């Protein structure tokens, strides 16, 4: 990338292509003399792979992919990129759902794939050091033998990286118990575009010394700096867990059940809600049998940590009987083995995949204050049913965290353009409600390229202006993940 004034100058001279060629040639020479062979690739297949994330909406078009192995190498690389005005896209496991790691405009992709080291678990502090390219699940496996875990958990954990999780402040199915990624990061090493290395907070739990700069790099999708190392905070592995699937008569009962669960004193790992249509789709797609003989409007998957007492299971069963006696639930199953628990989880975790494999979707990942959720879902569902009867809604999500995954599916007979037009129209009301109820247009997936136009529904003009000023401070040439978020 070159700056606008330079671009104008060279376009005036009709010399831009030549400028670009010479500049890129010099940059490549500089890379060759600064790094070992194999540090970068321009292989077409690699460019395609590393230029896109899970969204697959944009045509990948990076100029090269670089594979640094250390913070020092990232620093040298970013210094050179600044010198030669080369735009950079930080790239983790590329499981992002907002197109934050997409390189569609000739950017250099900085992959963390060769920075996967994980240190010894510190069982005094309950922490572990790692490089940012360590895969989320590898951290889980690494810490297991010490009886500890990094409690960031979702379906893409086998590919996503710690750096990507931190850059997106990832959520997942256990947020109700553990909170977001932000809560589980003690120290960060970050490299700025000018090559400067910041080592932020180390392994300190307490450090009240002014602005906590570390937090600026968590959830900002790689637009301020490249995360190269982290000191992660660990939690004891949960004891044995119990998994229930409840069948409920309507949405309002989902919230009544949630209140009962809160009152019960149980340690809740997950409280996930899915509509009848979502369950039906997973059962069909995965060829599974329904655990219930009748049709019910809503289902809730509840996972709790089993209390530490000899009669814990009996107590849970007694609690379940009380729910039946109070007619709060229409039906329920309590998994009797880890295998059964896994099968119940499959009905929740298989939804995204089943939806994607069934048809074209218009998707949103939104959040609302929990006390506004019911009103929001009812308003939105009624709007879709009366004004867009052809569009099929699928709603599920992390109800306990106020986070909904909202999907509209294209009917087979509808043209794609017509579908997109109707969805855009339906979104207008949805975003008006989100704004009115003080919700968020992106609960956990981030803004990236896909949701930039929606930022205004959740963030004020002043907030957005301040974010732009921050971007200017950390990356004055606008070379890091350009066009993302802001
Ligand atoms: C099946 C599936 C299920 C999912 N479920 C959930 C879920 O429940 N909850 C949830 O929150 N997300 C979920 N996601 C989304 C995704 O997995 C998370 O956002 C994850 O944290 C992204 O990590 P990544 O390493 O793949 O990042 P990438 O996709 O590679 O990058 C994401 C963003 O972070 C930036 N980035 C990456 N690495 C760095 C770095 N080292 N330094 C600076 N910036 C960096 C990128 O530039 C980009 O902007 C799911 C995705 C899939 C495919």
Structural write-up:
With 486 residues, this protein is of the alpha+beta class. It folds into 4 domains: 111 residues, Uridine Diphospho-n-acetylenolpyruvylglucosamine Reductase, domain 2, CATH 3.30.43; 110 residues, Uridine Diphospho-n-acetylenolpyruvylglucosamine Reductase, domain 3 (2-Layer Sandwich), CATH 3.30.465.10; 112 residues, Alpha-Beta Plaits; 87 residues, 2-Layer Sandwich (Alpha-Beta Plaits), CATH 3.30.70.2740. It contains 15 helices and 17 strands. A 7-stranded antiparallel sheet has the order 14-11-13-12-16-17-15, sandwiched between helices. The chain has a 4-stranded mixed sheet with strand order 1-2-4-3, sandwiched between helices. A hairpin with a 4-residue loop joins strand 16 and strand 17. Helix 2 runs antiparallel to helix 4 and helix 13 runs antiparallel to helix 14. The longest helix has 21 residues. The chain is globular. The two termini are 17 Å apart. The model has no long low-confidence stretch (mean pLDDT 94). Bound molecules: flavin-adenine dinucleotide (FAD). Flavin-adenine dinucleotide binds next to strand 3, helix 6 and strand 9. The site of flavin-adenine dinucleotide has 38 residues, from strand 3, helix 6 and strand 9.
